[in-house]
């Protein structure tokens, strides 16, 4: 029979710390008494999909006679659909039925606000020694709880990270403060010491944790709040359990002022591990660690070890989720899907409309929170678990859906993992590295993982590049080259923020949680933006398809006349292409006149090359003087690129903008009539030689660069007056292209 006492420790601003030389007397269990502590953390409502049953089976199989079952917090919040669809009530009922004795409050317990968690009627205590009413020392939660287990007097103290105030909505916690957990723990420990019935064993449940835990030194070095608790918590605490950082940890640390150690443990997350710590009493108030294990619970459920009441709670929750999941969330106008291979299997190495849409939602979702707005959003293909199709229905099809209707349940099936949403602040150079990490390590199961990116981003990569340093050709944010030294705010998920899927560049930045899950963002996005349509324009282009880069085509600017200022763009191509944009920036004192081409509305001197045929394609233009003071050597700039507004999808023929400066000498006066530009035979080829082999025209010494520092080919300026132009000190733009393969290797 377990006897329980609730205790509200009044926590003062000053810590009460025992002198290390005079340790207090504690309750004393008989020598040789063994006591077991089972512990979980960051369960996050994972009662469905077999996880809840497996954890229940593991608890049943491993629970000893003298035992307590505890949690370090975040039992609810950021939950999967079987729990979140019902305000997490099934999870709290599940933990009650499983015999949870006490839990620290975690930051996610405050997702719906302080009043909500305080109103939850559970058999187990929510403990928060460092959560006080604003402006006072008055505790808002019990600081500790005490109870008797077969004659062993147990005390459990709970605290939560002070970061909670930045992780949840301020409106939900406006009446409370989060104070130093060490001060709160030590105050509670002293109050327990002074009580009439001193506990035999005191356990700390702390919802704060390290970011790495290879050793106790590594763990304490990774997080100051965690380190303070480990190193400064009262010596009366016999075992310490942590949470929040979602990692597994099974260590020991020295007890201050003694030669003894105590267990320092964190049981992973999502119910994937059950901590089993066993202590033996020395008969003088001290406990010796007998064993400490993190049990992998996967597959532990059997027909006999899952209690009937626990199984019923799980089954009822999943059935109810099917019902509430049929509520309309929004609409789509056509299918929005993942990428697929020719055999119909999922292709995580290719771009998808669904991945890009989720990235858009993650970026917009920052505005649903208190965080500063993000610059762009990024998601991983592995987080997308199903497609959104016009004819889909949720569950067993018992409830009729209209075509194109999307339900809450269908949204959850796309993003079922309930990852925390937030923003990583990272440098531009790390963003570039992130896109290079789409190429996975050699031991990975997939060689390439294509990130979904929001509409603010435009990326060009080269699938044919052997050198990893040359795989990312260009990253643009809102049309501008990314600044390697500038910091950018990237909306993403906790999985990626922690370096998941080998995207380690994310871990170089700082992750701020929005307090929302991916599903909550996803749900609200559809609420605000329905009907939702797929964006069929690619956001990551492959340079291996670039017709100038892979040798499928050449492009040159020619002039057949030294005085008439007639020019033409000549494209020699082995393949057909379409929707290229050619721009001429006229020098001062000149206007551009186009033959057979019209300037695109809203642009200045840009025309569309609708069709590039296999063979030769020409675009003719002329520079007309509008001033008398324009004689002598001149130059102008031209660019050629695929129209970014066209709906390319893994077939962009010119994703990198090519730029070149063209020099000329003019004696034409305003109003002179000029002959039509007529292509001549005196052009210059890509190698700078006249086509008759005489090598009369050589490149000048001006080493210009293309606008995006790409490795693409320039647009050579050629003509009969080239030598004179060079002599005048005006040269072509030098780019220094390198040829790439004609076709991209198929990713699998």
UniProtKB/TrEMBL annotation:
<feature type="region of interest" description="Disordered">
    <location>
        <begin position="663"/>
        <end position="721"/>
    </location>
</feature>
<keyword id="KW-0732">Signal</keyword>
<comment type="similarity">
    <text>Belongs to the 5'-nucleotidase family.</text>
</comment>
<dbReference type="GO" id="GO:0009166">
    <property type="term" value="P:nucleotide catabolic process"/>
</dbReference>
<dbReference type="InterPro" id="IPR008334">
    <property type="entry name" value="5'-Nucleotdase_C"/>
</dbReference>
<dbReference type="Pfam" id="PF00149">
    <property type="entry name" value="Metallophos"/>
</dbReference>
<keyword id="KW-1133">Transmembrane helix</keyword>
<keyword id="KW-0378">Hydrolase</keyword>
<feature type="transmembrane region" description="Helical">
    <location>
        <begin position="723"/>
        <end position="742"/>
    </location>
</feature>
<dbReference type="InterPro" id="IPR004843">
    <property type="entry name" value="Calcineurin-like_PHP"/>
</dbReference>
<dbReference type="InterPro" id="IPR019931">
    <property type="entry name" value="LPXTG_anchor"/>
</dbReference>
<feature type="compositionally biased region" description="Basic and acidic residues">
    <location>
        <begin position="663"/>
        <end position="672"/>
    </location>
</feature>
<dbReference type="InterPro" id="IPR036907">
    <property type="entry name" value="5'-Nucleotdase_C_sf"/>
</dbReference>
<feature type="domain" description="Gram-positive cocci surface proteins LPxTG">
    <location>
        <begin position="715"/>
        <end position="748"/>
    </location>
</feature>
<keyword id="KW-0472">Membrane</keyword>
<dbReference type="GO" id="GO:0000166">
    <property type="term" value="F:nucleotide binding"/>
</dbReference>
<keyword id="KW-0572">Peptidoglycan-anchor</keyword>
<protein>
    <submittedName>
        <fullName>LPXTG-motif cell wall anchor domain protein</fullName>
        <ecNumber>3.1.3.5</ecNumber>
    </submittedName>
</protein>
<keyword id="KW-0812">Transmembrane</keyword>
<dbReference type="Pfam" id="PF02872">
    <property type="entry name" value="5_nucleotid_C"/>
</dbReference>
<feature type="signal peptide">
    <location>
        <begin position="1"/>
        <end position="27"/>
    </location>
</feature>
<keyword id="KW-0964">Secreted</keyword>
<dbReference type="InterPro" id="IPR006179">
    <property type="entry name" value="5_nucleotidase/apyrase"/>
</dbReference>
<dbReference type="GO" id="GO:0030288">
    <property type="term" value="C:outer membrane-bounded periplasmic space"/>
</dbReference>
<dbReference type="GO" id="GO:0008768">
    <property type="term" value="F:UDP-sugar diphosphatase activity"/>
</dbReference>
<keyword id="KW-0547">Nucleotide-binding</keyword>
<feature type="compositionally biased region" description="Basic and acidic residues">
    <location>
        <begin position="684"/>
        <end position="711"/>
    </location>
</feature>
<dbReference type="InterPro" id="IPR029052">
    <property type="entry name" value="Metallo-depent_PP-like"/>
</dbReference>
<keyword id="KW-0134">Cell wall</keyword>
<dbReference type="GO" id="GO:0008253">
    <property type="term" value="F:5'-nucleotidase activity"/>
</dbReference>
């Amino acid at each position: 029979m377990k006897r329980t006492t609730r205790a509200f420790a009044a926590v003062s601003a000053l810590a009460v710390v025992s002198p290390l030389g005079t340790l207090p007397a504690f309750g004393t269990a008989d020598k040789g008494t063994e006591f077991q502590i089972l512990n979980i953390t960051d369960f996050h409502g994972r009662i469905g999909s077999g996880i809840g049953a497996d954890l229940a089976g593991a608890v049943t199989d491993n629970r000893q006679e003298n035992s307590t079952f505890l949690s370090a917090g975040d039992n609810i919040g950021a939950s999967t659909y079987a729990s979140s669809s019902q305000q997490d009530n099934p999870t709290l009922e599940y933990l009650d039925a499983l015999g949870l004795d006490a839990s620290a409050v975690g930051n996610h317990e405050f997702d719906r606000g302080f009043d909500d968690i305080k109103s939850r009627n559970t058999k187990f205590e929510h403990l928060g020694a460092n959560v006080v009413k604003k402006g006072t020392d008055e505790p808002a939660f019990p600081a500790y709880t005490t109870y008797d287990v077969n004659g062993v007097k147990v005390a459990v103290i709970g605290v939560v990270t002070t970061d909670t105030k930045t992780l949840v909505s301020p409106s939900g916690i406006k009446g409370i403060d989060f104070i130093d957990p060490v001060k709160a723990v030590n105050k509670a420990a002293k109050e327990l010491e002074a009580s009439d019935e001193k506990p035999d064993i005191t356990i700390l449940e702390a919802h704060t944790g390290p970011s790495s835990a290879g050793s106790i030194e590594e763990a304490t070095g990774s997080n100051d709040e965690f380190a303070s608790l480990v190193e400064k918590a009262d010596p009366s605490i016999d075992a310490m359990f942590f949470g929040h950082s979602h990692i597994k940890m099974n260590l020991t640390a020295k007890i201050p002022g003694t030669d003894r150690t105590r267990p320092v443990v964190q049981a992973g997350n999502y119910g994937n591990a059950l901590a089993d710590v066993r202590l033996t009493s020395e008969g003088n108030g001290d406990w010796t660690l007998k064993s400490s294990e993190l049990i992998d619970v996967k597959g532990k459920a059997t027909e006999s070890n899952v209690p009937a009441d626990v199984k019923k709670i799980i089954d009822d929750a999943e059935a109810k989720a099917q019902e509430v999941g049929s509520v309309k969330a929004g609409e789509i106008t056509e299918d929005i899907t993942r990428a697929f291979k020719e055999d119909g299997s999922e292709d995580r190495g290719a771009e998808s409309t669904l991945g890009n849409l989720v990235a858009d939602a993650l970026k917009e979702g920052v505005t649903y929170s208190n965080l500063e707005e993000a610059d762009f959003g990024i998601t991983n293909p592995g987080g997308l678990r199903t497609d959104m199709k016009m004819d889909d229905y949720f569950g067993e099809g018992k409830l009729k859906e209209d075509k194109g209707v999307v339900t809450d349940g269908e949204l959850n099936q796309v993003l079922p993992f309930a990852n925390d949403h937030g923003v990583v602040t990272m440098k531009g150079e790390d963003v570039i590295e992130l896109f290079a990490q789409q190429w996975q390590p050699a031991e990975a199961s997939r060689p390439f993982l294509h990130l979904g990116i929001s509409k603010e981003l435009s990326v060009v990569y080269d699938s044919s590049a052997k050198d990893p340093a040359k795989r990312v050709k260009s990253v643009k944010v809102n049309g501008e080259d990314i600044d390697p030294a500038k910091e950018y705010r990237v909306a993403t998920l906790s999985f990626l923020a922690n370096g998941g899927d080998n995207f380690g560049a994310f871990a170089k930045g700082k992750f701020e949680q929005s307090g929302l899950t991916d599903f909550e963002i996803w749900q609200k996005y559809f609420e605000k933006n329905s009907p939702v349509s797929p964006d069929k324009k690619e956001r990551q282009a492959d340079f291996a398809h670039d017709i100038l880069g892979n040798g499928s085509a050449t492009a040159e600017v020619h002039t057949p006349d030294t005085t008439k200022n007639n020019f033409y763009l000549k494209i020699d191509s082995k393949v057909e292409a379409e929707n290229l944009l050619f721009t001429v920036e006229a020098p001062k004192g000149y206007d551009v006149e186009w033959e057979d081409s019209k300037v695109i509305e809203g642009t200045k001197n840009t025309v569309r090359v609708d069709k590039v045929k296999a063979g030769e394609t020409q675009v003719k233009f002329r520079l007309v003087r509008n001033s008398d003071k324009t004689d002598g050597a001149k130059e102008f700039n031209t660019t050629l690129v695929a129209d970014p507004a066209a709906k390319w999808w893994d077939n962009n023929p010119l994703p990198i903008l090519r730029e070149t400066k063209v020099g000329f000498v003019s004696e034409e006066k305003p109003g002179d009539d000029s002959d039509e530009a007529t292509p001549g035979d005196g052009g210059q080829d890509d190698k700078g030689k006249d086509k008759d082999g005489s090598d009369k025209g050589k490149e000048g010494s001006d080493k210009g660069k293309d606008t995006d520092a790409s490795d693409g080919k320039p647009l050579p300026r050629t003509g009969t007056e080239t030598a004179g132009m060079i002599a005048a000190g005006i040269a072509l733009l030098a780019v220094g292209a390198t040829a790439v393969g004609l076709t991209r290797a198929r990713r699998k």
